[in-house]
Amino acid sequence: MMDRKQCIVKLLVQPSRGLVDEKFIILVQKALPGYQLTVHALHKCEDGHSWEAFGHYISNATGTVNVPEDPSLGGTYSGVEQMGLLWSLRPVSGSKPGLRLRKMNVQIPMEVTISVYQGHQTEGFMDQVPLASVVVERWFMAPGVRRIPITEDGLTATLFLPPGPGPFPGLLDLWGGGGQLVEYRASLLASHGIASLALDYLTPKITMETRKMVDLQYFEKAYKVLEQHPQVNGSSIGMLGLSLGTTITLKMAVYSQVMKLRCAVCISGSHVQPVDGSLEDILTYMNQNASKTRVSEENEFIWRGLLLPVPSDLASKVDMGRLKCPLLVVVGEDDQNWPASESAMDMKEMMEKAGNSHLLTILSYPNAGHLIEPPYTPHARASLFRSMATREKMMALWGGETVAHSRAQEDAWRKLLVFLKENLYSGRNPGGGKRRRGCLERAESWLGLVESGSSLLLRLGGTPPWVAKMAAKTLPPGTADLSVRILSQAVLVLLPRDVLSVVVVYLACCPWKEEMMCGAMLEVNNLTPDWQNLSALKRCLRSQKMVKLSIKFTD
């Protein structure tokens, strides 16, 4: 084994601060050629439990390991996996069973310590001194996103507004049967330009005080909060539900006279329910089928059979033929908690018969489980779950195989964002048109280009201004948040001498309002706090005849 003094390794992680759905680059340099190294990730979550992941690598002829390009030979993941150190995170040895990694406070980052160790290690990382370490921040809230607690009309909710004056399209975000106010998906969606309202509907304050479940008007009140907010476009609101949240989403999308949804997203759920029933009736309906519960050999509860077989009676399922807005259905084919696949196929059949199947998009993923979350979220095949009916904790089997599930999360999130922007930003054409879809795909392709080229940019130390100029001219109006992400990604990998030219050329060509340009500049400044040359920036802005922006940003 090599003496530590002879092995001074350099570890670079870029960007070291970013959104949780953004990829990062891990580069190990100055190792000896052909040297065995373990790249390790450690995260201590807010409940005090520690999670880790690691990959085994061999440095190349120049003593380098480039994680996005080099294969891991073992560890918690294998092969070329740029984000394997996140999606393969698992509780450290000795942790209690049934843990699930979830962000509770979105106002602070998820901190991950990336380290490099000698040799191919599998345990005892805490007892060793790494060759190098870097702390990475993963945020669910982009700079400038505003978090606003909502308590009016008996609601327990949180509104997340994107940076800038708006108005923004809106989204009502519902989680499943575990209750509580879960904010991390809504805050991330706001980071992508969508005003998102996270809603607690099973354990809100009013239910805790009265011991009564909310009625369906509770959801319409939440919709009204979005619709009437001065920074939300009240005619462009969607709804997203996972698991039990899907049940409510479909009911309101089809039957509510108040909620005029522009689109809906349903993840891992079903349309099977008593159509005329309340939330309490829906839970009672499921509990009546409790005898269909199965238990695995590991004593994990399997509830997917509670709603099977899918009934033919329209009194027991939402009449999908009456749906009038675009619907995205996301299915994990190994979902052991809900009959998502069978339900999706029945919804498709109903809509084909009714002639509105053009509104339906189904994303179905083999070997993916129930908990399809934002990308790089560690897969939990099973975890502890507190039943809303009995309040007992039990081990729920969600299903899924780790690699396939992680692939599904990444693909579904990307397509979900495109679907939402296509429909929430579009004009009058339900489902979006080819032109709009092409614009969004072009915007996404530019983002992918910047992300995939980050490794090269790190080595070259910059990028010519024409890249920013081309991106600005290519991106369509209404995808400003994507533009901000591209701009931010580019700036994060540039040397200081390149920053001003790229930013100014980009903004000079970009077809946005000045307020949106200012928002972009503020985000870049937040992401690069070491960039202090404001007087030079002001001169550059004035040279591009952007006088108002130069005053607003620099004075």
Entry summary:
The protein has 16 helices and 21 strands.
For the secondary structure, the number of strands is 21
What name does the CATH topology of the largest domain carry? Answer: Rossmann fold
From the spread of the alpha carbons, the general shape counts as globular
Any low-confidence stretches, pLDDT <50, length ≥5? 428-517, 522-534, 549-555
Residue share in β-strands: 15-25%
- Kindly state the percentage of residues in helix: 25-40%
CA-based gyration radius? 24 Å
Major β-sheet, in short?
8 strands, mixed
Total number of domains: 3
CATH architecture of the largest domain: 3-Layer(aba) Sandwich
User: Averaging pLDDT over every residue, what do you get?
Assistant: 83
Secondary structural class: alpha/beta
For this structure, the quaternary state is single chain
The CATH class designation of the largest domain is Alpha Beta
**Can you count the helices?**
16
For the biggest β-sheet, the strand order reads 10-11-13-12-14-15-18-19
CATH homologous superfamily descriptor of the largest domain: Alpha/Beta hydrolase fold, catalytic domain
Topology:
Blueprint: E1 10-14, E2 17-19, E3 25-29, E4 36-44, E5 50-58, E6 65-66, H1 84-87, E7 90-91, E8 110-118, E9 132-139, E10 146-150, E11 157-161, E12 168-174, H2 184-190, E13 195-199, H3 205-210, H4 217-228, E14 232-242, H5 244-255, E15 263-267, H6 279-287, E16 294-295, E17 301-302, E18 327-332, H7 340-354, E19 360-365, E20 382-386, E21 393-397, H8 402-424, H9 434-452, H10 454-460, H11 465-474, H12 480-492, H13 496-509, H14 514-527, H15 534-543, H16 547-554
Parallel strand pairs: 2-9, 12-13, 12-14, 14-15, 15-18, 18-19
Antiparallel strand pairs: 1-3, 3-6, 4-5, 4-8, 5-7, 8-9, 10-11, 11-13, 16-17, 20-21
